[in-house]
Design a protein that fits this description.
Blueprint: H1 3-15, H2 20-26, H3 31-38, H4 46-56, H5 60-63
Helix pairs in contact: 2-3
């Protein structure tokens, strides 16, 4: 997994003052799953990347470090 995914995920969550548990409940995941993503112990799949991007209203490209701009291009 790219280091950026787990760093950016943690930064996004903390910047919005969302706990791992709240995020997990909102995304119908376990808190342990979110923790593993943030600690680089597990990679989110495509479905999960889409859920996370939609949750934070950001582009998947931002999570994957294809851009430094979190905005969604439409």
């Amino acid at each position: 997994m790219s280091r950026v995914i787990y760093v950016r995920l943690k930064e996004l969550r903390r910047a919005r003052r969302i706990t791992q548990l709240k995020m997990a409940m909102d995304l119908h995941m376990s808190q342990n799953t979110i923790s593993r993503y943030e600690n680089n112990e597990r990679e989110p799949g495509i479905r999960e990347l889409i859920q996370i991007a939609d949750y934070f209203n950001i582009s998947i490209d931002y999570l994957l470090e294809r851009t430094d701009r979190p905005e969604i291009n439409r």
